[in-house]
Amino acid sequence: MTANLLALEGVHTHIGAYHILHGVDLAVPRGQLTMLLGRNGAGKTTTLRTIMGLWRASQGRITFNGQDITQMPTPAIAALKVAYVPENMGIFSDLTVRENMLLAARSARNVSQIDEARLQWIFELFPAVEKFWSHPAGKLSGGQKQMLAVARAIVEPRELLIIDEPSKGLAPAIINNMIDAFAQLKGSGVTILLVEQNINFAKRLGDTVVVMDNGVVVHAGSMRALADDEALQHSLLGLAI
């Protein structure tokens, strides 16, 4: 097995006439939580969508677990045990929490076929999922929807979780709950790539960090090293952690 579960090499992405990614090199070490940071418009979300095949790389190579996935369709990438939680969460508002979870459980035809032990583990991570099990997902609060989005992503075992700004708009107490949940997921051996604007969130969770600007990677290294270097933070992000 390679040390990096996911790797991007010289990846370019065009969206219509716009050239968004300009040769992205990025490595996600196996079993670690990698933070993807950068100012708004740096190319972070485009990078995640390109990894998932939602937008096609126009140049370069993406490998997952040693396998070239650059031209794979999104369902085939998901079938490799990769889950993606977009910034808008992708919740089906008219369906219940239970129905949202069942849709994400690819191997289950009904709720009784979802692994019971795994479901109880998810309920412990995100009590709101159990509390509002039979409620329409559209009636949940923003924080509860975010918990459901992550719960849905892990309803089956995953090797890689890709999550775009999970703390956006959440209250501090819910952010702390989310941090605890991600720490448990990482402890269970799941590799996580996480875009985040909340720097305290990044500092508490990240093992490694990648910083993007204008469609390229401008820094990669240890999260702790970046957190300890205010001059580097100002240089890369225009702020101090």
Automatic annotation (TrEMBL):
Pfam family, one: ABC_tran
BP GO terms, sorted: L-amino acid transport
GO MF terms, alphabetically ordered: ATP binding; ATP hydrolysis activity; branched-chain amino acid transmembrane transporter activity
Keywords: Amino-acid transport, ATP-binding, Cell membrane, Membrane, Nucleotide-binding, Transport
SUPFAM superfamilies assigned to the protein according to its UniProt record, in alphabetical order: P-loop containing nucleoside triphosphate hydrolases
Organism ancestry: Bacteria, Pseudomonadati, Pseudomonadota, Betaproteobacteria, Burkholderiales
Domain (ABC transporter) ranges: 6-239
Protein family (similarity comment): Belongs to the ABC transporter superfamily.
Record-linked InterPro entries: AAA+_ATPase, ABC_transporter-like_ATP-bd, ABC_transporter-like_CS, BCAA_Transport_ATP-bd_LivF, P-loop_NTPase
The protein, known as: ATP-binding cassette domain-containing protein
